[in-house]
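Case study 2.
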Amino acid sequence: MAPMPISTLTTRSRQRISGSNPNSSKTRYAAAWPLARATELLKITKFLPNNPQFGDLNGIIYTGLQGVETGRLSAAQAADFVIDEATSSLKDVIVK
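Prediction:
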């Protein structure tokens, strides 16, 4: 079968070749407002710490937050809890 001349391609095929397809990934990405909005945050994003104890620290922080959410702890008590728990259970970690 001989290749089809470009003049006989459908509009959709032409759009796909030229990149002007309204359903292209760039267009869909721009239309997805959460993704477009999140892109702006990349300037201030930080990577997770590369520390094997990060999961433990994250669990301690989450427990402190749960205490505040359930009304068992005030914000100050939760901060003290996180500092005390992290200091006593994590090795070589400085908690500020």
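The chain has five helices and no strands.
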